[in-house]
Amino acid sequence: MIYAATAPSICLGLMQRYGAFNWDAWTNESFVKDDETKRLTYCGYLKFLSLDLADTYPIGLGRTKSAFKRGIEVIAKSMLKRGEVFVRAVKDRGAEGQGLNNILSQEWMPFHFDGMFKTQKHTRDDGSKYLVPNPPRFQYFAAVTPSPKNTGYTLWASSKLLLDLLPADKSLGYLQSLT
After folding, report:
1. In the chain, where are the structural domains located?
2. Which pLDDT tens digit goes with each residue over 152-166?
3. Where is the chain membrane-spanning (predicted)?
């Protein structure tokens, strides 16, 4: 119930802050004619709404087929407008290095690599800096049970079993050199 009470005001706030003020001036053809993604999304909304609302707003006495279609177009246009507003609200406007991942934090996360948390700064010829992923060559993860045999060298074991489960050709000294 709390969501139902607060969602409209949050939506309205986002619409006012991130909405395009000239949206209503666009005609049905012009707001999608130059953007294929918008056009396909709009057409998808039209098809979905015509099927979804057919039982709720049946065509018959008091509602013609053209009136139903016009109503669907209005709803689809408002859905497209809201979608664009939400895209503007959440769009990543972070630094160049944050394009490596969808997570905006620059904090390191233990036992985690996805291209963002372990990086090195490199310098371009013009002096500007950029981040490059620095993947670990060895990782140790703690878990209740070990990985199945012959699946790779990522070890899933409690720390007291690490040395017991090392492959014979990988010494502790070798693994230390990789971290």
Report:
1. 2-90, 99-136, 137-179
2. 545 444 556 667 767
3. none
